[in-house]
Here is the input.
Amino acid sequence: MSERILLVEDEEKLARMVELELNYEGYQVEKALDGREGLERALSGEFDLVLLDIMLPGMSGMEVLRRLRKESQVPVIMLTARDSVVDKVSGLDLGADDYVTKPFAIEELLARIRAALRVRGGREDALLCVGPLVMDVERHQVVVKGQEVELTKKEFDLLHQLLENKGRVLTRETLLDSVWGFDFVGETNSVDVYIRFLRSKLDEAFGVKLIHTVRGVGYVIRENDT
Ligand code: CA
Here is the structure.
């Protein structure tokens, strides 16, 4: 049976666009155009996930979330305005599962919906994240800051290995074995070459630092420089 999503959003054009995209992905969608109606519908227990705008007529998204969480643990993804750090922090404090910043790329919203539903369904392993990077393994897709990144097969496989071992340092030999296979014939510096490709497409392109060199040992992917 397809999952049911409640969309609480007063911008009708945006709501219709999101509804169409979600229908296309196989979700059943119902819309509420203001906070009070949204809360009422969300409390009905009929939904697998709630997409909740913050700026709403009737009752703010924050207040809807606060009241909803007294009775329900349904996954909630907040739709926040750009740069509204306060909203994000208080939304997460109040028990939101995640947030998406407007304007968002539909792919990012879909990835976060899948992630929230999977976490509840205990299948979170198909989605690997570090900082602003999300890898959807089943779809062979990598998204950074909401933007899809084109990777070659080898680049994807190498990134996949690093992400599956997030925070753990992997030696060149380990990466060579797991990505290129034991029968690899060629230069052992292939790992370094492909790490360079990944850095240029990810770290440098998006102004982040995810792939770290551990001198004399190998490579590790992690969010912070510590
Ligand atoms: Ca709004």
